[in-house]
Amino acid sequence: MTKLFSRFLKDESGATAIEYGLIAALISVALITGATTLGGKIGDTFNNLGTKMNTAATASGS
Fold it and tell me: Does the global pTM surpass 0.70?
């Protein structure tokens, strides 16, 4: 039984899979955070542009 337990402790074959999974999760979180921030900034830019266009159209129509 001790031989089996010591062999289990020395086995590192699953460790690399876990490490790759953690790296993939970290990259995913970074991408989602960046996309959310960028999406908000793009949305603000389009809203400002729409406001300016509406203001210009109202001013030229009067």
Answer: no
pLDDT in tens, 4-38: 777 777 776 677 888 889 999 999 999 999 999 99
CA neighbours closer than 13 Å in the CB half-sphere of residue 27: 6
DSSP-assigned letter for residue 52: H
Q: How many CB atoms lie within 10 A of CB 23?
A: 10
Secondary element (H or E) of residue 62: none
Helix (H, G, I), strand (E, B) or coil at 5: helix
Q: What is residue 12's three-state secondary structure?
A: coil
DSSP string covering 14-30: HHHHHHHHHHHHHHHHH
What is the Cα–Cα distance from 50 to 41, expressed in whole angstroms? 14
